[in-house]
UniProtKB/TrEMBL annotation:
<protein>
    <recommendedName>
        <fullName>Anti-sigma factor antagonist</fullName>
    </recommendedName>
</protein>
<dbReference type="InterPro" id="IPR002645">
    <property type="entry name" value="STAS_dom"/>
</dbReference>
<feature type="domain" description="STAS">
    <location>
        <begin position="1"/>
        <end position="107"/>
    </location>
</feature>
<dbReference type="InterPro" id="IPR036513">
    <property type="entry name" value="STAS_dom_sf"/>
</dbReference>
<dbReference type="Pfam" id="PF01740">
    <property type="entry name" value="STAS"/>
</dbReference>
<comment type="similarity">
    <text>Belongs to the anti-sigma-factor antagonist family.</text>
</comment>
<dbReference type="InterPro" id="IPR003658">
    <property type="entry name" value="Anti-sigma_ant"/>
</dbReference>
Length: 115
């Protein structure tokens, strides 16, 4: 986890399955609670696997960001995860940018009215 100004950037790598998903959710929630922020960028470019629990965590983080009036932007979305989100009808719900830099710019410009 890193900070870029008022944006939290999380890099997820490896397998994000039921064993790891709750840890990710807890750590991000804790970071949000400790630090004033415009929002969160989730860089998923390092993921090799993402199961349905992972998708549930992404949805949960999106809901949390909306409750808190913060932005959530995904970047580096692996093709398999993008396909899964599309099949589930969730792809359009998430803002996705091609790079961390673009995602940070998007979150930096976020206002609570966008939630």
């Amino acid at each position: 986890m890193a900070r870029r100004g008022r944006v939290i950037v999380v890099f997820a790598a490896g397998e994000l399955d039921y064993q790891v998903a709750d840890v990710l959710h807890r750590r991000v929630s804790d970071a949000w609670a400790r630090t004033p922020t415009n929002g969160l960028v989730l860089d998923l470019s390092g993921l090799s696997f993402c199961d349905s629990r992972c998708v549930g965590v992404l949805v949960g983080l999106l809901q949390q960001s909306r409750r808190q009036g913060c932005g959530l932007v995904l970047c580096g979305l692996p093709a398999r995860l993008e396909r899964r989100l599309t099949i589930l009808g969730l792809r359009a719900v998430f803002q996705v940018e091609p790079s961390v830099e673009r995602a940070v710019e998007a979150v930096s410009g976020f206002s609570p009215q966008d939630a």
